Request: fold
Amino acid sequence: MVDPGTIYPSFVEPAPEPGQWSQERLRSLAGELFADAPLVVVSNREPYVHLPDRAKPDGLSWRRPAGGLVSGLDPVLRAVEGGLWVAQGTGEADRLAADAWGRVAVPPDHPSYTLKRVWLHPNEVAGYYEGISNQGLWPLCHVVFLRPRFTIRDWQQYQKVNRRFAEAVLEEVGDGPAYVWVQDYHLCLVPKYLREARPDLTTGIFWHIPWPNPEIFRTCPFGAELLEGLLSADIIGFHIRYHGANFLATVEQTLEARHDRERREIIRSGHTTRVVDIPISVDFDEEEATAQSSETAQWMDEFRNRFKLDRFEHVLLGLDRFDYTKGIPERLMAVDVLLQEHPEYKGKLVFLQVGEMSRIQIAHYQALNDEVEKLAQEINDRHRTADWQPIELSRNPVDRPDLMALFRLADVCVVSSLHDGMNLVAKEYVASRFDEGGVLVLSRFTGAARELPEALLINPYDIRDIAQRLHQALQMPEHQQRDRMRRMRSTVRRNNIYAWAGRFLREMVLGGV
Ligand code: F6P
Reply:
């Protein structure tokens, strides 16, 4: 991290108060921070994926992948003039859309920044993404009682791919200065490889998932190397203080390093890494505007017809990537209990479980898919009448206007993650409800629960608790819904995605000035 006193003159505006962050504000801050050295974001997942499409003149169409990280960071990059995002390219259409260096201007309809795609061999994807990242670190950090799997072969691919990402960054920045912002558990070693090659670069990493306590983390055979990689960064961000505290405790128990508790800094081999907690959020204004658009209204009609929603008094929604950390079976079981204890809801409610399949090469994800399918069928069979069943499953991908349409139709949105770094579905639901209606039922074990205590908070492992909260949500008087929703909206409006990015980037470039 640079010394703000020596390198940066006092032209950078003082930090905005909470509530003053907007796209414009971030744009003007970025103009100052990155005037002489560009911002480079690095993540595994790319913000736009190209697909073959015979109907299009160039044979290509595109879409935005599911997942909080890309939906959170894309508006940030759009606000930063001349930004670069390095991510994994996937599929032939991605190659066709990119130039010889893997570069493509995005968003494809209104280009404003550059995406550089890194091409990985299937063996690399198997070891780095499906192996260490998603069968090792993902269950390790989410503590969902699934044994993490770490193999030497996967670890070799993880190291190799992290090096490839670092090389891609170095190729783009040349000899010049740059600020490199790495994202998530896939790329723990990138700060180390960057530092070895270019100790003058400033590097930050944001950890989007929970960090477990040292007892859990010490089971990882590559723990010390991972920590060493992370501590090569100048700054590490977590969504909530608790995860940062777990990280600091893990470092203390694993490595020889000095911990300055007051400043939340680790000093190791002469290098200082600062730990900050800054909760990610959504582009409140844009989500709200999309929710108010005519396209969203058309999608609402489409869903009303598709699911015959006008027949119901209550529409409940679960919307997630199909992932075993999201507590999807638990919420379906709660619907079952609700209908057993309150048969008066029969025929009057529908539970829409919507979301894309995810990480489908991994056995646990396939098993989850089968489990949810079977469970939904059992519950439907138990309660169905001649012309009604309580659960509708849809695995079609959803994009912005259709997502907002579902939120607007949902009297109750259920987020029952067993553990989640943040969970942006909860914040998106709140942003979409400009009518101040709707009830959010939210797992206590999400980062979002810390900011949204007005939601009905649940322990997702306690099915009866979820069922009771669903009943409470369905019976909640309108004035109380409004009151809770108004307060949640004010929180998310104030702590929006620009506040998250702006605060982190200030910390990374100016050291928190
Ligand atoms: O934060 C967790 C995360 O891995 C993000 O990187 C991403 O937004 C999301 O989960 C989706 O996962 P994947 O990129 O593996 O589909």
Summary: Residues 152-173 form the longest helix (22 residues).
